[in-house]
């Protein structure tokens, strides 16, 4: 073999070895330093010029191949990161979680210091930073910034990415002091912003920011990569917004379905209750039957009261409520025309909305009841109003208010009919009334009857003549004043002195009946005393009215005179009655009364103070002392002679609440 041939073979082997070496560098992604050391070693070994040219060519090709491989590897890693980010965005279930995930992925993808997400709603003057990730110092979620300023304003206006290597030094940016303060406090330099464009235009355009605290020139592929992430984020935001809207719609639909079912249940109950009540009305049942059905349907006691809040009919148990509160609730119900709560679970509903004298339905359904009882209350109120209207129309063929008043102060004809007519009668009187019993001297009775009827009609009252006595029912609350005015007017009209007994005020049927009997008793007392032409009520006559009347009301006299003291002893097991008796019998001397009772005088003084609180400051005036002494003696005799009578007396002193 010639030297030329051997030299060629050696060169070919060197060429093959050099190529393999560079291929190994490419295969293991050797650092650039190994390439440089190989070239330096070949030059130091005295490589030929041809070999050096060949090594330089291999070096360029290997570096190019390695760069392409690294570029593709980076693109694959970035694509994998985008796919992983898309999976994470899809898994997000809440709006805030999604925005936090977007900020975190953006920071990690570009390997920068911080990332922010701001969203702007169309029409609002500011944009809000809704999420932040990284080593953020002062920027907090919820910070509001001007919508048109800074790098974000440029992104929103052009809907394109913008970046700067050094934000504060970049004069092409529309600097805003509030944004510059944030950038300065964070120490940010390089900033990149890309748009978050959602198809729903009402959401406006958001901006995804990434920033670094070093001056940095961003490569185009980095901007493209962040734009791709922003597109994925925008699609995820739109999806989760739609999901949340759908979730809210479903929640509202569930609520609407629940309300519809509840309304349907109430409507069915109302229809069933209305059918039952109408059937009772057609069967001409009494009002008690209607109230019983209503109480069963409502689950509580029911009743009817007049416009003054006075109960007139009741079925079941109704809790006691102060008259002033009940009357105020009736006034509110009359003004609104709708059921009104008077207390927790106690409702008031007008029988005829718009009519002030129609009366009201009362029902006690308990504190747990809600407004679902209102439709049932309306059904019951309308049914009761219909029943009362039918009864009122039927009464056109039977005695009306005047004849009913005659029955009330005389002898009632039918208890059942009296009760129905009494209900209508009570609903017609909104104001309290006073009952007067009047008499004239012999020979003037006829003129008194005519004059009294005219006088009652002028005042909007009633007049009746039971057994020859003239009885008037007149509006008013002060029986003494009404009696004096009536006596003067009737005396002028009749031309003879008119004697008048008065009682009241009363606003119910039972109250009017009781007032009539009291007024008649006062008139009998005036006659017995020979006080013709005078006027008096029970408080004016004291014990004389009880002694001179034909039917003595001893328990009532005791109740009106010393009832509070007897009641105090009964409920508190004290001995005020004995102290009062000893005090009066000892000539009103506390010392001698204490000796009789065998207690300290201070004890007697304290008891007398309590008695003064119960009976009033003027209880020791001579006239009242006489009444009190008589009442004490009557109470003592009744207590000694009959324990049963004493029990009845105590019951009378403590009447049950209406």
Compact overview of the structure:
By secondary structure, the protein is α+β, with helices and mostly antiparallel strands.
Structure commentary:
This protein has 23 helices and 16 strands. The N and C termini lie far apart (about 145 Å). α4 runs antiparallel to α7 and α19 packs across α20 (about 590-595). β7 and β8 (about 310-315) form a beta hairpin. The chain is elongated and about 165 Å long. It is an alpha+beta fold and about 650 residues long. The chain folds into five domains: about 5-75; about 90-245, GAF domain (Beta-Lactamase, 2-Layer Sandwich); about 285-395, Dynein light chain 2a, cytoplasmic (Beta-Lactamase, 2-Layer Sandwich), CATH 3.30.450.30; about 430-550, 2-Layer Sandwich (Alpha-Beta Plaits); about 555-655, Orthogonal Bundle (Arc Repressor Mutant, subunit A). Helices cover about 60% and strands about 15% of the residues.
List the main descriptive attributes of the protein structure presented here.
single chain, 658 residues, alpha+beta, Beta-Lactamase, 5 domains, 23 helices, disordered C terminus
For the termini, the CA-CA separation is: 143 Å
Strand content: 5-15%
Using DSSP, what is the number of strands? 16
Helix content: 55-70%
CATH architecture of the largest domain: 2-Layer Sandwich
Segments where pLDDT lies below 50 for 5+ residues?
Answer: 1-8, 396-400, 641-658
How many separate domains?
5
Strand order of the largest sheet: 3-2-1-6-5-4
CATH class of the largest domain: Alpha Beta
Individual helix count? 23
Compute the CA-based radius of gyration.
52 Å
Given the helix and strand composition, which structural class is it? alpha+beta
Name of the CATH homologous superfamily of the largest domain: GAF domain
User: Biggest sheet: strands, sense, closure?
Assistant: 6 strands, antiparallel
CATH topology of the largest domain: Beta-Lactamase
Q: Provide mean pLDDT, rounded.
A: 78
| Silhouette | elongated
């Amino acid at each position: 073999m010639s030297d030329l041939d051997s030299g060629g073979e050696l060169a070919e082997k060197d060429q093959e070895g050099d190529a393999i070496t560079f291929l190994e560098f490419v295969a293991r992604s050797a650092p650039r330093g190994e390439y440089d050391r190989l070239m330096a070693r070949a030059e130091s070994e005295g490589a030929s010029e041809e070999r050096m040219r060949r090594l330089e060519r291999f070096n360029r090709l290997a570096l190019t191949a390695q760069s392409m491989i690294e570029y593709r590897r980076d693109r694959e890693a970035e694509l994998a990161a985008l796919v992983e980010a898309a999976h994470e965005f899809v898994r997000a279930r809440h709006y805030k979680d999604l925005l936090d995930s977007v900020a975190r992925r953006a920071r990690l993808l570009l390997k920068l210091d911080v990332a922010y997400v701001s969203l702007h709603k169309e029409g609002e003057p500011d944009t809000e930073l809704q999420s932040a990730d990284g080593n953020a110092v002062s920027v907090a979620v919820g910070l509001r910034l001007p919508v048109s300023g800074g790098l974000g304003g440029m992104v929103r206006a052009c809907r394109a990415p913008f970046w700067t290597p050094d934000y504060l030094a970049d004069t092409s940016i529309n600097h805003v002091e509030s944004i510059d303060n944030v950038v300065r406090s964070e120490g940010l330099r390089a900033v990149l912003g890309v748009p978050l464009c959602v198809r729903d235009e009402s959401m406006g355009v958001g901006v995804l920011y990434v920033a670094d605290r070093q001056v940095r020139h961003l490569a185009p592929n980095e901007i493209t990569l962040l734009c791709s992430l922003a597109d994925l984020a925008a699609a995820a935001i739109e999806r989760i917004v739609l999901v949340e809207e759908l979730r809210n719609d479903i929640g509202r639909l569930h609520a609407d379905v629940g309300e519809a079912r509840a309304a349907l249940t109430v409507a069915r109950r109302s229809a069933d209750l209305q059918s039952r009540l109408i059937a009772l009305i057609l069967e001409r049942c009494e009002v008690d039957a209607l109230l019983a059905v209503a109480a069963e349907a409502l689950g509580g006691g029911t009743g009817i009261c007049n416009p003054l809040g006075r109960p007139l009919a009741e079925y079941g148990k109704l809790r006691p409520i102060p008259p002033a509160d009940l009357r105020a609730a009736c006034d509110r119900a009359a003004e609104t025309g709708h059921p009104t709560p008077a207390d927790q679970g106690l409702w008031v509903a007008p029988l005829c909305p718009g009519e002030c004298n129609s009366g009201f339905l009362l029902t006690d359904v308990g504190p747990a009841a809600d407004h679902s009882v209102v439709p049932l209350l309306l059904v019951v109120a309308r049914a009761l109003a219909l029943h009362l209207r039918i009864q009122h129309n039927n009464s056109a063929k039977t005695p009306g208010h005047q004849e009913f008043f005659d029955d009330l102060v005389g002898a009632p004809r039918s208890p059942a009919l009296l009760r129905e007519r009494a209900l209508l009668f009570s609903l017609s009187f909104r104001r309290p009334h006073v009952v007067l019993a009047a008499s004239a001297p012999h020979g003037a009775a006829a003129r008194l009857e005519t004059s009294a009827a005219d006088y009652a009609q002028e005042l909007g009252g009633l007049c009746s003549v039971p057994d020859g006595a003239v009885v008037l029912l007149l509006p008013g609350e002060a029986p003494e004043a009404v009696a004096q005015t009536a006596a003067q007017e009737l005396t002028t009209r009749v031309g003879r002195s008119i004697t008048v007994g008065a009682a009241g005020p009363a606003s119910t049927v039972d109250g009017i009946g009781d007032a009539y009997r009291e007024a008649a008793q006062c008139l009998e007392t005036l006659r017995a005393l020979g006080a013709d032409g005078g006027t008096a009520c029970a408080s004016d006559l004291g014990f004389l009215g009880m002694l001179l009347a034909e039917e003595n009301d001893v328990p009532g006299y005791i109740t009106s005179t010393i009832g509070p003291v007897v009641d105090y002893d009964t409920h508190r097991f004290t001995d005020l009655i004995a102290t009062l008796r000893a005090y009066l019998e000892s000539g009103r001397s506390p010392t001698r009364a204490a000796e009789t009772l065998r207690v300290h005088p201070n004890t007697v003084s304290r008891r007398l103070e309590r008695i003064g609180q119960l009976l009033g400051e003027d209880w020791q005036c001579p006239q009242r002392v006489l009444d009190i002494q008589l009442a004490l003696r009557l109470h003592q005799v009744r207590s000694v002679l009959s324990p049963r009578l004493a029990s009845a007396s105590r019951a009378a002193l403590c009447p049950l609440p209406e």
